[in-house]
């Protein structure tokens, strides 16, 4: 027990009164500390006996015993259900013909070019600062550690499983890039107003509002690094590569027969006519030249040539020679700019611009509520950014309907990478993340005060174990690759696996905090 002694600062009291006041106040403080120590001991014994479901509340509700397990489960389910409801709205729109595949692809590109950059700019520029970079230095360390674990485990397991290079990239993207916004923020917001909030208090004067604010700050700061890597390296992973065409064709005999039958049907459409074309809306399949099973296309145009149709485009030999002789190599700065632009994406440009604003004197101009630009420009960008996630979920629901209507069951080549990605992301990662966070609690207090913050420890565990990021479906739709695989990945992750696994992770994080801090 700490040595406590009252101090009287009033100069209007006599010496006798001051001495008596000091003695009385000191006795009161000692009694308070004794009772507080007894109360803390009672709480520890009760919690150790009955586990995380029931807790003894010490403080204004001293002597009462409450449960928070069921409440947390229900709140977690509400966050998942909110996502599923928006997905359902998208499926209804597609079911009634308002949202075909071409419109989905157009909306995904618009979202990628405009709404998602607005969202990233708002989230990063409003949070980042030099002070937080210095104070929150463990967060990028945790992110890089988790990313390295994800990369290593994904590469080892997918190579042992014999996946093609294309599917190894798909699994790696699903494992490396997790939901770092909606689910973690919903989790800490619900924890802060629940009876479990007292476990997350950092000191006697902490409040539920402060718990929620710190948790959201940690989450958004973690998401900054996730977004930077996701929209650069992740965007490259989910693009078509040149070596994909050289991967061996893994189709089954039935799939080959199905494709041959479709091709013969196309050629029998027009016998003897000069040319004909037929368009489909996602009901036909493409061949699997990239080592992946046949998949849908939003629109396919087939032209049948007759004997009079030339097979190669005619070119003017003289003009082509003239162009070759006049060709001048591009300046170095243009080639560098093209290389950078090929690696970048609109959301990544927005993220770097947000860093420029957040770490420079421009931030008060945009984020000071008294400035001219805050109510006009800044709030307008924030409003546009809020539309990004609903648009992604709506397109996700519409794509699910397209797959259902195609009556194209998932092939074994498609099921295997999806199952591996879910197993690594949701099954393996909790067993790798929790020990790392526990080591930080044990040995990190001498390097950072965040090691003693229960909210920080809880959020690092949650952020390391969340499902695959929903906006990866946006990248696959724009790049026209891995669309079906990503839809099945998100369906199983959020519709089946997420609720039990994430609830277990939250309880595990609360247990770690309760027993170690």
Description of the structure:
This protein has 517 residues and is mainly alpha-helical. It has 3 domains: 15-50; 72-245 and 355-516; 253-303, no CATH class. It contains 19 helices and 4 strands. Helix 3 packs across helix 14 and helix 16 (412-443) runs parallel beside helix 19. Residues 248-289 are annotated as: Disordered. It is a multi-pass membrane protein. One of its GO terms (cellular component) is nucleus. This is Dynein light chain 1, cytoplasmic.
Order of helices and strands: HEEHHHHHHHHEEHHHHHHHHHH
Shape: globular
Oligomeric state of the chains? single chain
Structural class: mainly alpha
Global mean pLDDT: 76
Q: Number of DSSP strands?
A: 4
Number of helices: 19
Q: What is the end-to-end distance? A: 18 Å
Instruction: Record the strand order, biggest sheet.
Output: 1-2
Computed CA radius of gyration, to the nearest angstrom: 29 Å
**Unreliable runs:** 51-72, 246-290, 296-315
The largest β sheet comes out as: 2 strands, antiparallel
Please estimate the helix content: 55-70%
Strand content: under 5%
- Count of domains: 3
InterPro entries: DLC_sf, Dynein_light_chain_typ-1/2, Mem_transp_PIN-like
Protein name: Dynein light chain 1, cytoplasmic
Main location: cytoplasm
Keywords: Cytoplasm, Cytoskeleton, Dynein, Membrane, Microtubule, mRNA transport, Nucleus, Protein transport, Transmembrane, Transmembrane helix, Transport
């Amino acid at each position: 027990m700490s040595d406590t002694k009252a101090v009287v600062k009033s100069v209007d009291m006599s010496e006798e009164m001051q001495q008596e006041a000091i003695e009385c106040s000191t006795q009161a403080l000692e009694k308070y500390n004794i009772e507080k120590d007894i109360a803390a001991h009672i709480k520890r014994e009760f919690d150790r006996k009955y586990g995380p479901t029931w807790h003894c509340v010490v403080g204004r509700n001293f002597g009462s015993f409450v449960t928070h397990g069921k409440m947390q489960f229900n709140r977690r389910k509400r966050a998942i259900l909110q996502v599923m409801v928006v997905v359902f709205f998208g499926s209804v729109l597609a079911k009634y013909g308002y949202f075909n595949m071409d419109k989905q692809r157009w909306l995904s590109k618009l979202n990628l070019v405009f709404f998602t950059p607005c969202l990233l700019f708002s989230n990063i520029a409003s949070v980042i600062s030099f002070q937080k970079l210095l104070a929150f230095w463990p967060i990028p360390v945790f992110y890089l550690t988790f990313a390295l674990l994800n990369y290593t485990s994904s590469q080892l397991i997918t190579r042992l499983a014999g996946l093609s290079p294309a599917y190894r990239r798909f699994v790696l993207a699903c494992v490396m890039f997790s939901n770092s916004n909606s689910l973690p923020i919903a989790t800490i917001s619900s924890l802060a107003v629940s009876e479990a909030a007292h476990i997350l208090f950092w000191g006697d004067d902490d409040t539920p509002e402060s718990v929620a604010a710190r948790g959201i700050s940690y989450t958004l700061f973690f998401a900054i690094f996730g977004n930077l890597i996701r929209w650069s390296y992740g965007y490259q992973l989910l693009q078509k590569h040149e070596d994909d065409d050289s991967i061996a064709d893994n189709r089954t005999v039935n799939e080959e027969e199905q494709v041959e039958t479709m091709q013969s049907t196309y050629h029998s459409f027009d016998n003897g006519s000069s040319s004909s074309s037929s368009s489909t809306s996602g009901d036909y399949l493409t061949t699997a030249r990239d080592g992946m099973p046949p998949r849908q296309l939003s629109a396919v145009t087939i032209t049948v040539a007759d004997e009079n149709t030339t097979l190669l485009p005619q070119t003017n030999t003289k003009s082509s020679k003239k162009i070759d002789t006049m060709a001048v190599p591009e300046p170095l700065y243009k080639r560098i700019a093209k290389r950078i632009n090929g690696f970048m994406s609109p959301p990544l440009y927005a993220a770097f611009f947000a860093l420029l604003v957040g770490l420079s004197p421009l931030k008060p101009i945009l984020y000071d509520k008294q400035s001219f630009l805050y109510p006009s420009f800044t709030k307008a960008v924030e409003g546009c950014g809020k539309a990004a996630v609903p648009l992604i979920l709506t397109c996700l629901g519409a794509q699910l309907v397209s797959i259902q209507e195609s009556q194209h069951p998932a092939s074994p080549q498609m099921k295997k990478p999806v199952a591996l990605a879910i197993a690594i992301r949701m099954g393996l990662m909790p067993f790798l993340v929790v020990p790392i966070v526990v080591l930080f609690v044990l040995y990190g207090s001498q390097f950072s005060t965040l090691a003693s913050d229960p909210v920080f420890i809880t959020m690092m565990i949650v952020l390391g174990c969340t499902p695959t990021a929903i906006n990866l479906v946006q990248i696959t739709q724009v790049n026209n690759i891995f669309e079906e695989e990503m839809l099945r990945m998100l369906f199983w992750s959020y519709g089946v696996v997420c609720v039990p696994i994430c609830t277990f992770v939250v309880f595990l994080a609360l247990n770690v905090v309760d027993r170690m801090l």
